[in-house]
Amino acid sequence: MAKKLLLVLSLLLSACASHAVPGLVTVTPASSLLEMTVYPNLTATPVPRTSTRTPLSPTITRTASPVPWKSLPQATATLPGPTPTETLLPALELPTAQPFARARQPWRGEPTYPADSRPGLLFRVDYDTDQWALTEDNFGVTVLAHREIPYCTILPWSGRGLPSGWQVTHEFRTIGGADFDVHTVTRNGVLEFVAYVGGDRKIVTGFQVNFQEQPERCIQEAEAVLATLRSE
What we know:
With 232 residues, the protein is an alpha+beta fold.
C-alpha cells in the first residue's frame, strides 16, 4: 500500500515539470530567479558639465608707492625777523637860493608856549641862506631845511608825550643869548631827535631838530641858528 502511494506522488511531480497545475503554487529558488532575469545593457552617456559658478573678480592688490619727500607738505616755522623800519617821507624840494639875496635871512613866528610868553611878541632866528632854506614840510608846517644834509630840519615844537620804548634826557644849556632846556630823545638806544625849549625871558618857544644822516653836523649847524633866537 505504501509503495502504491509513493508511485502516485512521483507521477504527479513528473507532470508538474511540463504543465502547471491550476491552484498549485510552485516556489522557484532565488538562485534560479537570478539566473533567469535578463537585464538590459546599460550604456553611460556622458553629460557635459556646464559650470554655473560665477567667475571671481580679479584680485586687486594695493601697493604703497613711495611719495617723493618734496611733494609732502613741509612744516615751516616763521622766525621773528628784524623790526620793520619806518618808511621815510620823500625828501623836501627846496627853493633855489637867490644869487643876490642877503647872506642871512630872518625866520619869524609865534612862540609855541604863548602862555609863558609876553603877548604880541614873535620869535626870530637868523639863518644862512647858503645852508638853509625856509620851506614847508610834507605836513604843511613851516621849517628850515638844510641844503646839504638830507632830512636835516628845524621846526617849531611844543612838547608831547613819547611812545613806549622812547627815552628822553634833559640838559640846561645857554646857546648864544638864550637859555634852553635841551631834550635828547632816543629809542632803544638810537638817537631820534633833539628838542630845544627856551627864550630870552620875554618869550618861551621850542624847536625840534630832525635828522637821518650826519646827526652831529646837523645838530651843530642847527644850534648855530638857535643861537640867534630873540623876541621882537
